[in-house]
Amino acid sequence: MSFVTGNIILETKNLTKVYEVGLFKKGSIMAVDNVSFNLHKGEIISVVGESGSGKTTMAKIILKLLPSTDGKILYNGKDISEFKKKKDLINYWRHVQGIFQDPYAPFNLFYKVDRVFNIIFNLFEKPFSREERKKMIESSLEMVDLNPKEVLGKYPHQLSGGQRQRILIARSLIVNPEILLADEPTSMIDASTRVDVLKVFLNLREKQGLSIIFITHDVGLAYYISDRMLVMQKGQIVEEGKVEEIIANPKQEYTKKLLSSIPTLTKKWEFFEKNETS
Amino acid sequence: MSVLRAENIKAYYKLLDGDVKAVEDVTFSLEAGEILGIAGESGCGKSTLAATLSTVILPPLKLIGGRLIIEDGKNIFELRERTLRMEIRGKYLALIPQSAMNALTPTKKIKHLVIDAIRAHQPRMPKKEILKTSKKQFEEIGLPPRVLESYFFELSGGMKQRSVIAMSSLLNPKVLVADEPTAALDVSTQKIVLNLLVSLKEKGIVQSIIFITHDIAVLRQIADRIMVMYAGMIVEVGGIEDVVFKPLHPYTQGLISTVIVPEPDIKEKVLTGIPGAPPNLKDPPPGCRFHPRCKFVMPECKKKVPPLASKNGKIVLCWLYT
Predict the structure, then answer these.
(1) In this predicted model, what pLDDT tens digit does every residue of A12-40 receive, in sequence order?
(2) What is the number of structural domains in chain A?
(3) A220 and B187 in contact by Cβ < 8 A?
(4) A267 falls within a domain
(5) What does DSSP assign to residue A164?
(6) Do the domain assignments include residue A164?
(7) What order do you get walking across the sheet with A8-21 strand by strand?
(8) Considering Cα of B292, then B297, then B300, then B306, what sign does the dihedral take?
């Protein structure tokens, strides 16, 4: 599955985030350490690492939900830290959207699922009429392979995790973004419905030329969905390259260990290897 | 010889507006020295089955019927609560709960919890002796003795899960029921925990393990036999390789086809998934519970629950094979 990709649309340069912790005994945690990478138009890259490796912190910085300590993020050549006015921020969020892990939290149990669409329309300068909104919602639901008649007007508990996650993807598609940042979008979804969500991502790239940053701890998923892979360990990118090359021929010890710990169907592990205590 | 035999177990959640039929007619036997995997998606009743098997049946969960027979032929569902607590739980059957991250009391050191657990079975055992034996047990499975002196929150995720496993196996139970023991762990920690479970069995600390998970690739690594559960019912039972490579039930086929692993041919494979969503167990579909999502659906499927059929050494619950 090769895909011709365009210009660089997002670039991070020496991105660093240090969390200060403690009230009396000061300490600091280097959550993201000197991370530089770029994202081309129409490309899917995945960020892989174990928990605590700084993946989500990086995602939050890119979405401008957290300030960075050091380093730059360039979106189409413009430094995003300069977007301070509401107008600029809204403009940025109209092009860069995020999807998160939990497909349950964004929904209020007592209201119909249609409600999650309300807030996204604030990102538009001009207000839309009810009819226009409905049309936009329906067309974006169709983009994620959901039948609007089947999901609209339902309550959250009547839908599966996969359907809810696709509704949230549809929501972020309403503004027609250029970059989608998906932070572990399938980790809380069952295997049988997870595939539908993955297909949606691949389709969006093919049809709309969307660029996707896919954050996951599952190397298998990363391999399936993305063109390039960044392996993160303790805030640093330790390995970067085409997924096929990394899977076939990992260079770093950490990547090798990560790959060898993934259970597969065809090969069975030998247990009782020595020096495997942590 | 089977160390545990479940016969037609039914367990429902009794709610005001109806019963949630979470475990329906589950029958199987667990042999000595075996790791039996139970695979299924969330909401299929696998954790309810784990709770039922470890005799921790708390309201609104209610045992509707069935027998659970241990080695000496007794049905432990008929035993009194006191006998259960003294003789069965922890001693014959132990449960590793699902959420290791918050399974233990944060205000007590691990050693206090260990003393508490052992005193429940041997009230007169002196503290020193308990600590000595538990230290030995912890070392045996590769946990440093400092763990006993730690509070729960001082340990890493993998350590927490391993301490929970160590505590569950303190009294050398015959059967260990592990309910998603690796759910919230990283892949490398997961491997360490799986390694520990296998070594518990190899060292004879436990005899058999029932391993419950949603991850078939994990079961492939450690299980000898596997049961696939869908909507409260066991739909397929067989040797792990038979089920993984030659699945019979349409649900198993779908489930196996969705496993994504980093192997070269996965990118070419067209992943199909299973259309639809698992049913609400309050009102499961009549007949075969999988029929609304099944691509081989036949008129019989909607009317009657299929009988258990055996084919190629496997047992399958499907009209296709009768």
Answers:
(1) 999 999 988 777 777 788 889 999 999 99
(2) 1
(3) no
(4) no
(5) H
(6) no
(7) A27-40, A8-21, A70-75, A78-79
(8) negative
Residues recorded for chain A: 278
Domain range summary for chain B, segments of one domain joined by +: 2-321
Contact B110, B131 (CB under 8 A): no
Determine whether the interchain pair A261/B277 forms a contact, defined as Cβ–Cβ distance below 8 Å: no
Q: Give the domain extent around A16.
A: 8-112+176-260
Percent helix, percent strand, percent coil in chain B, to nearest 5 = 35, 25, 40
On chain A, the residues whose CB falls within 8 A of the CB of B220 are 263-265, 268
pLDDT at residue B239 above 90? yes
- A 207-236 residues with CB below 8 A of B? 217-224
A167/B contact by beta carbon, under 8 A? no
For residue B95, give both structure tokens: 């449960």
- Fold exhibited by the domain B2-321: Rossmann fold (3.40.50)
ipTM above 0.85, yes or no: no
Instruction: Tell me the pLDDT tens digit for each residue of A1-14.
Output: 445 567 889 999 99
Length of chain B in residues, anyone? 322
Residue A142 lies in a domain: no
Q: For B71-128, how does the pLDDT look when each residue is reduced to its tens digit (9 = 90+)?
A: 888 898 888 888 888 888 888 999 988 776 677 888 889 999 899 888 888 888 899 9
Per-residue buried b or exposed e for A241-274, using 16+ beta carbons within 10 Å of the residue's own CB: bebeebbeebeeebbeebbebbbbbeeebebeee
- The CATH number given to whatever domain includes residue A96 is 3.40.50.300
Residue in chain A lying closest to B215 (CA): A191
B270 vs A: CB within 8 A: no
Locate the DSSP E strands across A140-188: 179-183
**Side chain identity at B76, as an amino acid letter?**
I
- Rg of chain A (C-alpha set): 20
A160 shares contact with chain B (CB less than 8 Å): yes
Lookup: tokens for B304: 């009657």
**Residue A138 placed within a domain:** no
Contacts of B252 (CB under 8 A, 6+ apart): B228, B235, B236, B243
